[in-house]
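Friendly challenge for the regulars: who can give me the structure tokens for this chain first? No prize, just bragging rights.
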Amino acid sequence: MIIRQLEVGTMDNFCYLVGCAETRQAMVIDPGGDIDKILSAARSESLTIKIIVNTHGHGDHTAGSAALKARTGARVLIHAADAGGVQADGHLSDGDRLRVGALLVEVIHTPGHTPGGVCLYAGGHLFTGDTLFVGDSGRTDLPGGDRSTLGASIRRLMKLPEDTVVWPGHDYGPTPSSTLAWEKRHNVNAREYGYHVED
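First reply, four minutes later:
Bragging rights claimed.
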């Protein structure tokens, strides 16, 4: 699996280019801006972008989707509950499996930050959008947010293997990525959300 973490937009957003090393097909997660940077990264890896996934409907994650689709012909996907205002070619549901070349990417519906938030899980890597950050979690004070719902979503994620790599939607933490094991021990919300473990 090829993973390129790209900082885009003006709010410390992370966009991800995820590719199949065998077929060189790729998906882009949350193209919030800087489309030329995303396309340049794809060219440097000899990747063809086939799918664009928005983890949720906020503009800092979706702003570049239409332009990237126009430049690549890729399909834009988002959960139906967050589809308002996003020109999508299809809607995601919990348990969907997206094929990117030889890669299978599982869709996990994780509402709480927004009603249609999703995370993407593939090969021990978890792309968490604004559900889970390094050391923190997404805000719930915006329309559609709910703290208890977000807590339930994060507890679900914590059932994945502890060595799962966490790739967040913003560069808000002490490192640009972490693991679920690290989050269980150090995330500021771990105790409140009921997944804290001691070292």
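The mean pLDDT is 96. Helices lie at 35-44, 59-62, 65-72, 147-157, 180-186, 190-193. Your move, everyone else.
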